[in-house]
Amino acid sequence: GTSRDVGRDKDGKITRSPIRICLVVGGKVKKPGKRGRKPAKIDLKAKLERSRQSARECRARKKLRYQYLEELVSSRERAICALREELEMYKQWCMAMDQGKIPSEIKALLTGEEQSKSQQNSSRHMKAGKTDANSNSW
Predict the structure, then answer these.
(1) Highest taxon of the source (predicted)?
(2) β 14-16/6-8 pair status
(3) How far is CA 87 from CA 84, 91, 98, 102, 130, in A?
(4) pTM over 0.90
(5) How far is Cα 3 from Cα 125, in angstroms, rounded to an integer?
(6) Cβ neighbours of 96 (radius 10 Å)
(7) Can you give the three-state secondary structure of the chain, one letter per residue?
(8) Which of 6, 19, 83, 129 would suit a FRET pair with 40, their CA atoms being 20 to 30 Å apart?
(9) Helix 44-98 and helix 104-136, axial crossing angle in degrees, nearest 10
(10) How sure is the predictor about 13, in pLDDT bands with cuts at 50, 70 and 90?
(11) What is the dihedral of CA 98, 101, 105, 111, to 10 degrees?
């Protein structure tokens, strides 16, 4: 609460001191000033050790984060190299075809597709023949 010391001076006049705000908690008078909870007396060594431990953990997290980022960068660089090689191969194929030559790789792809198509067609004909034979058997 607020308190104002009221008293009398030596001539008998009433005197008042300036207003002071005091807080009485648990029988202790607390002076105004910093707001909020005042920390209890913390062991300085324990506080320093907690700070050091926190710094160690922070450095470990930072190290892990940098390792992860470095691995990510190296994997992306490898992917870029592979794509560049593939692009170069396609460029060479295009240059060969511009000169009227069909690269052996493309021939292999085309003949592979033709073989797979012919195998699919022949298997369809065989299945169709079996169903025709089965349908006529009764």
Answers:
(1) Eukaryota
(2) antiparallel
(3) 5, 6, 16, 17, 47
(4) no
(5) 110
(6) 15
(7) CEECCEEECCCCCEEECCCEECEEECCEEECCCCCCCCCCCCCHHHHHHHHHHHHHHHHHHHHHHHHHHHHHHHHHHHHHHHHHHHHHHHHHHHHHHHCCCCCHHHHHHHHHHHHHHHHHHHHHHHHHHHHHHHHHCC
(8) 19
(9) 80
(10) confident
(11) 120
Residue linked to tokens 């699919």: 120
Residue 101: both structure tokens together = 């030559």
Give the residue carrying structure tokens 């953990």. Answer: 57
Closest CA to 16 of 25, 6, 8: 6
21, β-bridge pairs: 2
